[in-house]
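Quick check before the chapter quiz. The format below is the same one you will see on the exam, so make sure you can read both the input and the output lines.
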Amino acid sequence: MIFLAFAALFPVYAQSPAPCAVDSGATAWMLTSTAFVLLMIPGLAMFYGGLVRTKNVLGTMMHSFAAMAIVGVLWVVCGYAMSFGPNTLGGWIGWKKEYFFLSGIDTTILSAHVPEYVFAMFQGKFAMITPALIAGAFAERVSFRGYCLFITLWSLLVYNPLCHWVWASDGFLFKLGTIDFAGGTVVHIAAGVSGLTAALYLGARRGYPKTAMNPSNLVMTLMGAGLLWVGWFGFNAGSSVSSGLDTARALAVTQVAAATGAAMWMVIEALQHNKATSLGIVSGILAGLVVITPAAGVVQPAGAMALAAVASLVCYASIQIKNRMGYDDSLDVFGIHGVAGLLGALFLSFFIRPAWMAEAADKAGGSWTAWQQLAVQSAGVGLTILYSGLLSLGLVVLVEKTVGFRLESKLESAGMDSSLHGEQGYGLINLS
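Here is the expected output.
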C-alpha cells in the first residue's frame, strides 16, 4: 500500500520504542527553528498592523499577540495531545494522557534524536500563528472578546484535528500519503478558507469599498515581511526535524521561492502599472513563501521557482477578482494564503524530486505517478476546505450569537484602538 511508503519516509513523529541518544546538532537547529517561527508572529503583527488604518493598528496587532497567549496555553494543556496523540474518537483527534499538560514527556527522546519537549514547542508555534493569520480577513471590524473566543474554539475544533490527520503518524491523511511538509493545508488553506468564511458572514467594513482605507504604515509592513521571510526558514527547514540534507533542501527552496515570488510580482506590476510597489513586493514574497510551504521537502529549486512564479500570477489575479466582486477580505488572507497554499499543495505533485518518487514507488511495491499523487493531494485539499469552512462558519455564528463578534457601528467608526483598548498607536506626547 502506498501509505506504508509514506509512513516509512516520515518516521520522525513516532516515539522511539526505547530511549536513544540526543543529537545535539539536530536539537540545536530545532531550538533555533522554534525561535524563528515564534519571530514570525510579531512579524505578522507588524505586517498586518501597517496595512490597516491608524485607528486600528494596535487592535490589529493585538490579534497576533493574543494568539500567542491563548493558543500558547491551550497547546500545553491539550493541543499537543489532540494533535499528536494516538487516534481517538475514530481518528478525529488524538489523545494520550501523558501529553496532557506535557506531563509525561519530560525524558522522552523522539526517534529523530531530539527531546520531545523541543518538538512540542516547535509545533506549538504553528498552532499559534495559524489563527493569527485568520484575523487579517476580518481586520478592523471585530470585538476583541469575540476574537479571543473564536480562536480558542477554532484551535480546539479545527486546527488540532487537521494537524492530527495530516502530521500524526496514525492520521488518516498521513497514511493516505498526503504531502504537507510544513503547513500548506494545515496552516494556509485552513486559515485562508476560515478567514474568507468569517469575512463573508460578518460583512464588509463600514464604508468599504467606497471609502478610502489606506495603510497606516507601509514601512512597518515591509519590516514585518522581512521578519516573516527570516522566520520562514525555521518554519520550513525546521519541519525536517533534523539537521542534514533534508534541512538544507527545505531552506534552499524557501529562499528561491520567496525571491521568485517577489520578482514575479514586480514584473506583473511593471507590466500593468509601469511601476513596482512596496505592497506588491511583500505580497509576492508571501505568495512565494506560502506556495513552497507544503512542497519544501520534495521539490528542487527549479520546481520552487515555477511554483512561486505561478503563485504570484494567480494570487495577483485573485486579488483583482476580489476587488471586482466587492467582498471584504481585508488583508487578502484568502487571496494569498488560501490561494497560494492550495496551488502549492496540488501542483507540487508535478515537481517532486525523481529520487523521492522512485523511493516511494519502490516501498509501495509498484509504480507511482504525479497524477496519482495529485489525486491524493486533491483529497487532502478538498477535505481541508470542506472541514475548515463548515466548522468556521458554525463557530462564527456561535460567537456572534453569544458574546458578539462584529463591532457596533459607533465602535468601529471610532476605531479598535480607542474603543476596545483605550490606547492610541501613534499618540503624540504633550511636552508642555
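If your answer matched, good. The chain has a mean pLDDT of 94.
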